[in-house]
Structures are given as C-alpha cells and as structure tokens.
Amino acid sequence: MEESEKSSESVSANSHVDKAEDGPSNRNDSDKSSQSKPRLKLFSKVMEKSLQWLLDNASFDRFSRCFQPLSKQNPQLTEVMHKQFISQLQTLVQSEISAVIEEGKLQVKFEELDRLEELAKDTPHAAWRPSGDPEQDVCSGLVSYYKKQEEYMRIQLKKLQKENAGLAQKVQAGRENITQMEQHIASGVEEWRASLEDLEAFVSTLSPSEHFRSL
Length: 215
Description:
This protein has 215 residues and is mainly alpha-helical. It has nine helices and no strands.
C-alpha cells in the first residue's frame, strides 16, 4: 500500500511540476488552449484518473501475492521489482495515451466536434434521439432511408423517360427517312422500267434493213 501511495504521489507531483514549469509567461497560452481544446483537456484528465486508478490497484500486496515464494524469501527484491513494475507501467501507459492522441489526431477531431456543436446551436429542430423501442427506431430510420431511395428512383425514372422520349424521336425520324428512301428508290425503279419498256417498244418498231441502212 505504501508503494501505491508513493506512486500516486509521484504521478500527482509530476503533474504539478509540469504545471509549475509552465510559469506565469505561459499562463495566457494555457488559458487560450483550455478554451480552444476543452475536449482534449477533458480526455487527458480522464486518462490521468484512469492511470491513477490503475496504479492504485497495482499495490505491493497484490504484486507480492502473485510472487509469494519470492516475496517470502526476499521481500526487498520483491519491493524493488514492484517499484520497477510501477515505473515501467506508468511510462508505458503514458506513452500509449500520447500515441493515441497523436496517431488518432484527437485534437483535430475534437475541434471538429466543437465546430459541429456550434453549428448545431443554430438548428431549430432537436436532433434525433432513440425512443427506447429498437423496432420503432429501426423502422423510423428505414422509412427515411426508403423515402430518400424513392425520391432518387423518381429522379432517375424521369431522366430515363426523357432519354427514352429522345431516342423514340430519333428512331421515328430514322424510320421516316428509311420510308422516304424506299419511296425514292421505288419511284426510280419505276421510272427505269418505264424508260426500258419505251426503249424496247422503239427497238421493236425498227426493221433489220433499216438497222443496216442506219449503219
């Protein structure tokens, strides 16, 4: 128990030392940071309390019970091992917390939460809250989702109908062009047949002698 109290005192002392090292020249900066980063401050305090709770529960009595043969034979060595364990545990947890803050970019995300909170203040309607009935909540969420999908499908249907109308007009214009072309070809064929018949009739009226005389 004495070791846990010492470790807790060392953690609080380190925090006080860090605050004291800031000095009066950095008080304004700390005030500004506390105003601009309240969520990060709160997160750090929660992590500090969690670490303190962890160190308090990692007492020497509990540690020695895990190594009873060694603690009975050499209690001083067990005490030294416990001090090293507490020191390494504290350092490891603090480094992990710092890594989470840096790698997770918590400062940026907390600032984004602050921005969203400021924007939500101007919203006239209250945000959605669960009613306590999972079925009702799921249905309400699905209804809004299906309404959005229905509206989207209506917009897409209008686009397709417009495109189909344009394609139908093009097809109709193409058919009319084909019909006109067929009529033009048919009239040309008829004219060619008529001219061919006239030519055959004219040739049949001529005698062979007249042919030779004409030559």
